Structures are given as C-alpha cells and as structure tokens.
Amino acid sequence: MRTRVFWALGVLLGLALAVQPGQRIPEFALWDPQGNLVTPATLKKPAVLVFWASWCPVCRAEFPGLHKVAEETGVPFYVISREPKDTKEVVLAYMKAYPRFIPLLASDRDKPHEVANRFKVLGQPWTFVVDAEAKVVALFAGRAGREALLDALLLAGVEVP
C-alpha cells in the first residue's frame, strides 16, 4: 500500500514539475534516422513526443496502441529514449517493429536523456501532445489511453477517426 502511495505522490510531483499544457516545448536538437536535425521549429506539427526506455515494460505494453493511433491519424510520433544506455543501435533495432514512429537520436548538441530532463520527465513513458505552435496541449505520465490520446489530438487540431 505504501509503495502505491509513494508512486502516486511521485507521479503527481512529476506532473507538477513537467512542461505544462499551454507552455512551449523546450529547445532541443536531435537527429532523426535519416540524419535530419529535428528541433521544435522543424517538428512536423501537431505531433506527439514520447519519452521511453528500451527496458521499460510499460513502454513495451503501450507502444502497439500508440503505433496504431499514429497509423490511423498520420500524426508524427517522435520517440526519445530517456535511458542514457540506449545506444543508437538499440533504439533503431527496437523501432523496427514501429515504422510510424520517428526515433530521435543524439546530436552534437544534445543527448536524448538531456532533452528529457528539459521537459522535466521523471519516468517513462511520458507522452506530450503538441499543437501547431509547439505548445503542449496534453501530457500523460505513464500509459496514455487511446481515447484520452485521441481527445488530446483533437485539442491539438487533428482530425481523428
């Protein structure tokens, strides 16, 4: 019981500290797999940013549902590992099962886990839905349910199925 209480308090604290709806996303510069530099200015928007880790069982459970939403809506889902040990090779191998996701990789300027710190992400998965102005319209700490995610995409200006 205590473990659940501490976990819930941690999630609430994390949500209070993270980038909030209405705020612009922090600056970052990461590479996509084709070698293009991705920044908040170059993101295809609206977009979804998902912070994850290759070892995370919740991420593994959530990704098939997120991928289905990406396929159905055509919205770009950028995935950023917050695990410093997730190498480019690990990330790209993991993402082979999710071709609609755009993994963002370390650049000369930024590392993915540093970007997670700028968003004040305290765990994984954490999902941010961003509108055309790069403002957060919704965030999810833990699993993002399908209906809640579709509602957030509506708020971001996306026509959903």
Description:
By secondary structure, this protein is of the alpha/beta class. It has one domain: Glutaredoxin (3-Layer(aba) Sandwich), CATH 3.40.30.10. It is 37% helix and 18% strand. The protein contains five helices and seven strands, in the order αβββαβαβαββα. The chain has a five-stranded mixed sheet with strand order 5-4-3-6-7, sandwiched between helices. A two-stranded antiparallel ribbon has the order 1-2. Strand 4, helix 3 and strand 5 form a beta-alpha-beta unit. The radius of gyration is 15 Å and the shape is globular. The termini are far apart. It comes from Thermus brockianus. It holds the Pfam family AhpC-TSA. Keywords: Isomerase.
Layout of helices and strands:
Elements: H1 2-17, E1 30-31, E2 37-38, E3 47-52, H2 57-73, E4 77-81, H3 88-95, E5 101-103, H4 112-119, E6 126-130, E7 136-141, H5 146-155
Parallel strand pairs: 3-4, 4-5
Antiparallel strand pairs: 1-2, 3-6, 6-7
Task: Give a brief outline of the structure.
With 161 residues, this protein is of the alpha/beta class. It has one domain (2-155): Glutaredoxin (3-Layer(aba) Sandwich).
